[in-house]
Amino acid sequence: MSLVEDVQAEKEKCLKDGYVVVGSSQYVGKMPESVELRAQAKRAGANHVIYSATWIPNPPGSWSFRFGQGFGSGGTGGGQYQVHAIFMGK
Could you give the 3-state DSSP secondary structure of residue 82? Predict the structure, then answer.
């Protein structure tokens, strides 16, 4: 598993090394955990995963509020990740 800045460039290197693409995923949300990536790779039949995660902050003036376990929190800030993962096999 490799966290990279440029998924496309790394994909090209892997293809030259004999890997084939067996799946890919793109989403905006939380940072993927390694256990999640391993599970998805296993389901796809991949033995190598390359992925990137770019932080996208919320725009200025946006507001979020969370309430749970008797406590509330809110404010500006926050954001999410733009994630691109490629699952490969050899």
Answer: strand
- Contact yes or no for 23/44 (Cβ under 8 A): yes
The CA distances from residue 44 to 22, 49, 66, 80, in Å, are: 7, 11, 35, 25
Helix, strand, coil proportions of the chain in percent (round to 5)? 25, 50, 30
Q: What is the pLDDT along the chain (90 residues), one digit of tens a residue?
A: 999 999 999 999 999 999 999 999 999 999 999 999 999 999 999 999 999 999 998 777 656 556 665 555 555 567 899 999 999 999
Indicate the class that CATH gives domain 2-59+78-89. alpha beta
**What are the sequence ranges of the domains in the chain?**
2-59+78-89
Report which of 25, 42, 44 is spatially closest to residue 83, judged by C-alpha positions.
25
pTM over 0.90: no
